[in-house]
């Protein structure tokens, strides 16, 4: 992992990416330390300061996902709202800010079942996609489509709207298609697609979605590094999908 003292924002992003690849918690703490340096170094009212706030929110949310400390989640949402309110971010930077806050609000919904939180998450993430949909050079298309897929799936489950779940599957497929080879987020996006497909299968009643989910989970298992902490959970999801497939045949 590359750490450049002259670029704490980029170095914090490298720490986040390495954490997604390895699951090593010390990388989160390194990233949080670097992002505070980046925030203090960024000019006021600049896109760099907004992006530092965004990345602070991302790292805090990732730490919450690991420790389930509610204070981290609350701080992640606060950082995301501060980033969104900051002057300066437009285009790709604004899209990343919107998407990051949307991801934190998804976690709020999963903790509290507050439907307003997941509706806001989906709305923000759709707005993020609209910011960059016409920009073929946007580097985070896969991650953004993955975040949108998750938000739509959760909103569809909460509201009972099958069309949102179908839209979640479409966004999940696009996320997987857009993932560059070797991207550390790739395995997670495959898992998310499999989960969306399993819920879609419940409403569609067909086996095709379950078959595709099994394929997605298997691909995720093959893509995760050995000893990654998510492997047991993905194996359990694959076992469940295969049990459902057997029952349908």
Description:
There is one protein chain. This protein is mostly helical and 249 residues long. The protein contains 11 helices and no strands. Helix 10 packs antiparallel against helix 11. The relative contact order is 0.07.
Number of E-state strands:
0
Class based on secondary structure composition and strand pairing: mainly alpha
Q: Strand fraction band?
A: under 5%
Described by its quaternary structure, the protein is single chain
What are the main properties of this structure?
mainly alpha; single chain
Task: Please outline the helices and strands.
Elements: H1 8-22, H2 25-41, H3 47-67, H4 70-85, H5 91-112, H6 115-132, H7 141-159, H8 162-178, H9 186-204, H10 208-223, H11 231-248
Helix pairs in contact: 1-2, 1-3, 2-3, 3-4, 3-5, 4-5, 5-6, 5-7, 6-7, 7-8, 7-9, 8-9, 9-10, 10-11
Describe, in short, the structure shown.
The protein is mostly helical and about 250 residues long. The chain is built from 11 helices and no strands. The mean pLDDT is about 95.
